[in-house]
């Protein structure tokens, strides 16, 4: 469990839980979900003393759940936001090497069980991050190895000046620090949404490669299981983003209706940041739907091209059959067991028959060619 106290222009790392919030700042406490049950009594005490109310048992169960979807709920004292974020490549590697928890093992099994698909689609694996937002307190619950909280703190520490007057655990930031728990929560959620925007480039590259392979008439596409798995992953990603959009839209609607104890300028800034987060989610949803439509279109075009090639082959075979049909009819007469046949004993009968058959064949070929019965559709 990590405790960070934000004041105006600085942040301080604390070793013990504060009994009250600073007058010009707020308190941020983040912990991992695996230790949430152990830390819960301390967190409830902190919520009671600093936030003014303990967290409901129902909300505690939601925060402890690994599989809880993105959601928003509230009470008269605090807001509850659960947001599912993408698992990072570093976390995938850590999960494969770690046997610390059953959840990590289950996540590893889920990753390994996805067979036949490219690695980029294995990245569409999410974990829940929970936020309990009070006026002066933010409690965030992260999965083991979560990069969001650590990256967020490191971002400010890299751009910070150690204060000579303050203690070693107090830093004065040169960049703008969050002014409220809601501001800090929105910044972390915005960071999570950006990871979805980064993923779209890799997804587009993979689907473009498949489209090129599907539309190439000389290639024989066989990776249908991977393509079907990718479509399912895109459907899952779309449902996930829609849940995120609904949760953040509900939070934004609540923010418009109630005051958070901040100035009007800070309230307007929160509204703008929340709308920006929702816009980013909408961009992800739009891109995912575009990828789904592209995959569907490529599949339909592929089967349409296959059907056209089949029609070309059948038309060519039909034309060849039509050409040889009269030739077979002529040769059939010479196979009959007649004792007297008008030209059968003529010394030039063979050459006259061969010439007639050649003339008929050439004539039919020319007629069929002019009518484009022997031409390919793509020409």
List the helices and strands and how they pair.
Elements lengths: L1 E6 L2 E5 L11 E7 L3 H16 L5 H8 L6 E4 L4 E8 L2 H9 L4 H11 L6 H4 L3 E8 L3 E6 L4 H12 L1 E3 L7 E4 L7 H35 L8 H34 L6 H71 L14 H22 L9
Parallel strand pairs: 3-7
Antiparallel strand pairs: 1-2, 1-3, 2-9, 4-5, 5-6, 6-7, 8-9
Secondary-structure-derived class:
alpha+beta
Note the overall shape. rod-shaped
Side by side, the strands of the main sheet go 4-5-6-7-3-1-2-9-8
Distance between the termini: 69 Å
Supply the number of helical segments: 10
The average pLDDT value, as a whole number, equals 79
Strand count, sense and barrel status of the largest sheet are: 9 strands, mixed
**Which residue ranges are poorly predicted, with pLDDT under 50 across at least 5 consecutive positions?**
99-116, 161-168
How many beta-strand runs? Answer: 9
CATH topology of the largest domain: Beta Polymerase, domain 2
Tell me what portion of residues adopts beta-strand conformation.
5-15%
CATH class of the largest domain: Alpha Beta
List the secondary-structure elements in sequence, H or E.
EEEHHEEHHHEEHEEHHHH
The CATH superfamily of the largest domain appears as CorA soluble domain-like
């Amino acid at each position: 469990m990590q405790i960070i106290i934000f004041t105006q222009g600085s942040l301080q790392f604390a070793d013990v839980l504060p009994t009250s919030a600073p007058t010009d700042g707020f308190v941020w406490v983040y912990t991992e979900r695996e230790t949430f049950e152990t830390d819960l009594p301390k967190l409830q005490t902190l919520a009671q003393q600093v936030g003014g109310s303990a967290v409901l048992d129902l909300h505690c169960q939601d925060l402890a759940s690994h599989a809880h979807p993105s959601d928003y709920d509230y009470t008269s004292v605090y807001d509850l936001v659960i947001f599912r974020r993408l698992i990072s490549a570093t976390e995938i590697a850590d999960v494969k090497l770690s046997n610390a928890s059953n959840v990590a093992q289950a996540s590893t099994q889920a990753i390994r069980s996805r067979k036949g698909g490219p690695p980029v689609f294995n990245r569409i694996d999410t974990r829940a991050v929970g936020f309990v937002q009070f006026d002066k307190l933010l409690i965030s619950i992260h999965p083991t190895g979560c990069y969001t909280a650590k990256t967020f703190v490191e971002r400010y520490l890299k751009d910070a000046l150690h204060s000579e007057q303050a203690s070693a655990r107090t830093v004065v930031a040169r960049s703008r620090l969050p002014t409220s728990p809601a501001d800090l929560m929105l910044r972390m959620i915005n960071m999570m949404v950006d990871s979805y925007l980064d993923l779209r480039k890799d997804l587009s590259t993979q689907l473009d490669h498949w489209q090129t392979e599907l539309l190439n008439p000389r290639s024989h596409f066989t990776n249908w299981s991977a393509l079907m798995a990718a479509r399912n992953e895109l459907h899952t990603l779309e449902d996930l983003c829609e849940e995120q959009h609904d949760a953040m839209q509900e939070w934004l609607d609540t923010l418009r209706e109630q005051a958070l104890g901040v100035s009007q300028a800070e309230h307007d800034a929160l509204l703008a940041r929340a709308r920006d987060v929702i816009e980013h989610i909408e961009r992800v949803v739009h891109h995912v739907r575009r990828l789904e439509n592209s995959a569907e279109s490529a599949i339909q075009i592929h089967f349409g091209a296959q059907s056209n090639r089949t029609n070309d082959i059948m038309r060519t075979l039909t034309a060849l059959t039509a050409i040889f049909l009269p030739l077979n009819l002529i040769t059939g007469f010479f196979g009959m067991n007649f004792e007297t046949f008008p030209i059968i004993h003529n010394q030039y009968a063979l050459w006259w028959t061969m010439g007639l058959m050649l003339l008929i064949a050439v004539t039919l070929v020319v007629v069929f060619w002019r009518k484009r019965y022997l031409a390919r559709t793509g020409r």
